[in-house]
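Subject — a protein and its fold

Tokens — whole-number codes for backbone shape
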Amino acid sequence: MPEPRRAAQHPVLDVSCVRVTFGGLAAVDGVDLTVAPGEVVGVIGPNGAGKSTLLNVISGFVAVDAGSDDARVVFDGVDVTNVLPYRRARLGMARSFQDARLFPAMTVRDALLGAFHEGFTSGLFSEGMASGFARAQEDAAHEGIEDLLDLVDLRRYLDHRVSDLSFGTTRALEMAALAARRPKLLLLDEPASGLQQSEVEVMGALIHKIRREAAAVVIDHDVPFVAGLVDRLVAMDLGRVVAEGRPADVLTSDAVIDSYLGGAAPPLAGADVRRSTRVRPRIQAVTR
């Protein structure tokens, strides 16, 4: 007797026919992108290729062009094309930006605690009166911080203000705050930008730790870093996808060499791209 077929698992992200223009210039021009559950997809391309605009469309900070009837952003089976960013976040989408957007006057402890606050249901009055229910939620959040510190070793900085941290430590704190949401999808915009090489090498391990099996879309100009991190690579140029597939195949494609790498031999050509970014099991170097 044949085994019953299992229902196909829908993609965690399904973007189709997305188009965004600014002043008549197509920043994103009919892009399709599908991400499977647990998959890590990298997006590369030169400046002006449309990478960040695509990420802004996925996260809801930029709307698709009016009249684009076929354009869709479907997240975890839900059409979120016209859904506000904070509602997408509540559905399980987490986004980082090129500049870490944290409150500089907060301590690291408060910043981590604040990452759990969206899930609080006690309300302002209960919190102000320090009701038992509110205290229980606060205690749960503090336990959650300990869980985060097992992922990102920030214990020595807990009482430091965010403004006093190094850039690498601030980036690690941002990643920890994203992990607090236990997202289904991570959208990372240039996570390695501004980091020292030793920190870049550790960032790949940190991303895999904090995503906890979540899918991820990673944009970065550091091609070896992205290629060594992802399962699949997407190359964009002038708002369009020009190549897609395994990192080694994409980096050696004629379209990428011509449009992104300026006709030069691509980095890592003919090599095992996953060995290019060597990561250490500890992530303390990021927090120095």
Notes: Residues 1-8, 120-127, 269-288 have pLDDT under 50 and may be disordered. Strands lie at 13-22, 25-35, 40-44, 72-75, 78-79, 93-95, 185-189, 215-219, 232-237, 240-245. Residues 132-151 form the longest helix (20 residues). Residues 189 and 219 are 5 Å apart (CA to CA).
